[in-house]
Prior knowledge:
Layout: H1 2-16, H2 30-39, H3 44-67, E1 80-86, E2 91-92, E3 96-107, E4 112-113, E5 118-124, E6 134-143, H4 156-162, E7 165-171, E8 178-182, H5 188-203, H6 208-218, H7 226-235, H8 245-264, H9 267-272, H10 275-293, H11 298-315, H12 322-336, H13 344-359, H14 370-391, E9 396-397, H15 400-428, H16 430-455, E10 460-461, H17 469-483, H18 493-502, E11 514-518, E12 527-530, E13 535-538, H19 550-561, E14 567-572, H20 577-580, H21 583-589, E15 592-597, E16 609-610, E17 616-619, E18 622-628, E19 643-648, E20 651-655, H22 661-671, E21 679-681, H23 693-699, E22 703-706, H24 719-726, E23 731-734, H25 735-738, E24 741-745, E25 751-756, H26 757-760
Parallel strand pairs: 5-7, 13-14, 14-15, 15-16, 20-21, 21-22, 22-23
Antiparallel strand pairs: 1-3, 1-6, 2-3, 3-4, 3-5, 6-7, 6-8, 9-10, 11-12, 11-24, 12-13, 17-18, 18-19, 19-20, 24-25
Amino acid sequence: MIYTTVAFVSGVVLLQFQSTLPPLSALPLLLPLCLLAWRYRATPVIQLPVTLLGGFFWAAVMAHSALDATLPETLEGADLLATGVIESLPDVTADRTRFWFQVEQLADAQQAYPVPGRVLLNWYRHAPALSAGDRWQFSVRLKRPHGLANPGAFDYEASLFQKGIRATGYIRAGAVNRRLGSVAIGYQFERMRQAIAEKIDSVLPPGEPAGLVRALMIGDRSRISPAEWAVFRKTGTNHLVAISGLHIGIVSGIGFFLAGGLWRRSARLCGLMPAPQAGAVAALISGFCYAGLAGFAIPCVRALVMLSAVLGGVLCRRPVQPARSLCIALLSIVLIDPIAVISPGFWLSFGAVAVILLGILGRLRLTAALIAGLFKVQWVVALGLAPILLLLGFELPIVSPLVNLMVVPLFSLLLVPLTLFSVTALMLWPSLGTLLLAATTWLLGQTQWLLALVAEHSDTISLAGVPPLWMLLGMLLSILLLLLPAGIPGRWLGLLLIWPLLFYRPASPPRGEVWMTMLDVGQGLAIVLETSRHVLLYDAGPRFPSGFDTGAAVVVPYLRSRGVEKIDRIIVTNGDMDHRGGLATVLRELPSGTLLSGEPGRIPSGKPVRCAAGTHWTWDGVRFEILHPDGAAHWRGNDASCVLAVATAAGQLLLTGDIEAAAEERLIAHYGERLASAVVTVPHHGSAGSSGTQFIAATGVRYGLISAGYRNRYGFPKAVVRERWQGRAVTLLNTAEAGAISLRFTADGRIEGPFSYRKTHRRYWMTTPF
C-alpha cells in the first residue's frame, strides 16, 4: 500500500507544477490504462505508473472544478449586487472588517451572472457589526485572485486557491447593503466562535495573552502582532499557536482517556461497548468539536482525517498499523482535496508523523525515561523536518529542538487544557471563568516573555536559493541514514551528504556584468542590482495602511533567496511611502552600507545622504552614476527622485524613480545623448505627467519597465503613456502583469531577458492579467 500511495500522491503533486491544465477530453484515455492496471495489479512496473497517472488526472478533474467558479474578467471592477452568507468569523480592525462571503446570487442592473462561490470581502470605514451565518445583500466591486509574484516570497494566489476563494473585493457604501436574515443550519460553530471571541474580548484587555487565548481556543490568530510572530518563528514554536495536529491530538487524547476511564467503571456499559471503542468515539467527537471551534481550518481537517484513520482501527477492533494508517490518511486527504499538496503545512504534518515512525517506532521501551523519550522525539522531528522546512523556504531556528523539548509538554499538559477549561467556564460560569482565565493569561504571558528572551539570542539556518537536484536528494538521503537504528553501519555517511549543501550559494554575476531584478511590490518600486561582489537596492517597496510591508514580504525574502548577506548601497529615490515603506524592515534585517535619497529629510529610517548629480563609483567593472537631482534647491517630491545610470558593455540601464516633466527636461538639457539606454524604468509608474515624447526619444530605449499595482486606483500606466513608448517601438513590461522582471547585462555585450517571473514560474491557478 505504501508504494501505491506514493505513486498516487506523486501524480497529484505533478499536476500542481503544470502551467495549464490538461483538457478533460483526455480523461477517457485513462480507462484502458485502468483496466490494464487491474488486470496486472500484482505487477508493480505496470500498476505504479498507471496509479501515478490516476492521481494526475484526478487532481486535474478537481482543479477544473475549482477554476470553474472564477470571476469572469469582464466583471472586474464593475458595480455588482451580491447576495449570500457570511461564512467566516469577521476579522475586525480599526479601519476595516474582512470576512469570507459565500455568494448565492450575483447581478447588476441588466442581468445575473454565474456566482464565483466563496469571495474575500473588505468593508472599509463604518462597517456594522457582522455575524457569521447572516445572509446579506452587498454592493461590491470584485477582482480575480491576484498576488505579488516574486522569487522567494509567499504565494498569495496559491493560498487563496487552496482556500477556495475565487475573487476578492470590497463593499461599496449605499442603501442597498442590508441584512436579509440568518441561516438556521450549517453555521453553528461559526456563531459559537464569534460568541467566544466576544466574551474573551469583554474580559481580557487587548494585548499579547488575549490574542494567544483567541488563537488557542478558536483558531483566530488575527490579534497576534507581527512582533509576537517573530518570537515564535525565531524559536521554532509557531506551530504551537496554530490549531493543528498537536492541539487536535491533545483534545482527542483527553476525550479518549476520560471517556475510557469513566466507561470502565460501569460493567453494563462495557457490555454494550468495550472501553477502548468508547474512548475512540469520544476522541473523535472531541477532535471534531475542537476543529469546529477552529473554523475547520485546513490543518484541522487534515488532523481529523489522520485521527480517524488511526481510531478507525480501534473502532473496528483491528490492530493499529501506523504506516498503514498514515497511508490511509494521506490517500483520503488527496482524494478529498488534491489541492492540499500545495500547502507547506501538508508536508510538515505528514513529514512529522513519517519521521517519528521512522526514527522512534519500536525503539522507545516503556522503561525508558520520560525526558529521554521526549528528547528523542524532538531530535527526530527536528532532524527529519529540516530538509522539508529548508526546501519550502523556511528558516531553521538552531534552538528549536531544545525550546520545543520544554515548551511542547508545557502547552500539551497545561496551557492548552487550561485555556479550554477556562474559556468553557467563562461561558458557563462567568465569575469562575474570569478568575481561571486571569491565571491562564498570566501563565501564557510568562511563557511568551521567556520565548522572547530566547529569541533575542537565537540564530537561524536557511537555504540561499534553490540548490541543484543532486544536493537536495543527497540531503534527503542523509536524513534517512541518520534516522536509521544505531546498529546499522554507515550512518555517518549522512553527514558527508549534507556537507555540500552547507556551502552552496546561488550563482552571482561574473566581473563586468550586472543583474537587475525589478520586484513586484504592487503600487511602488523596489529594484535589486547585483554585480560580482556588490548589491544595490534602489527603493525598498511600499508599506500600506493595512500594515502590509513589502520590505518584509518581498524585498528581504528575495535578497535572502539570492544569498545576500549585506546590501552595499541603498538609494531611496524620494520620501513617498511607496518608495521608502519597506526601508525600516530592510535595515533591521540586513546589514547595509551607504544610504542615499533625493529627500533625506523625509526618510525617518537610517541616516541618508542627499543624492547629488555627478556622484559616481565603479563596482566590479560596472560604472554607476547619479544623474539627478543637481544642486538646485527647488527639487521637491517626485522631481527630487534620484536618477541612476548603470553603464555596461551591453548598454546603459537608466533608473528614473518618480521624475516628472520638469526633471525630464533638465536631464535632456544637461545630458542629451548620454541618456541613450537599452533599458529604462518608465518614470512615476506610467503617470500622464511623465514620459514626455522628447525624453522617450532621447533614451532610444529597447525595453521600458513599469512597476505598478494590479488594477491600481490611479490607472497607471496611463493609456496615453503606453502609446508614447510603444510608438517608439519600445517593448513594455509591467510588474502587475509579469510579476518580478529580471535582466542580465553580460560582459560580452548581450542583454539576456527580460524574464517574467509570472511566466517562467506559472501555475495553472494563477490569474492571467495579460
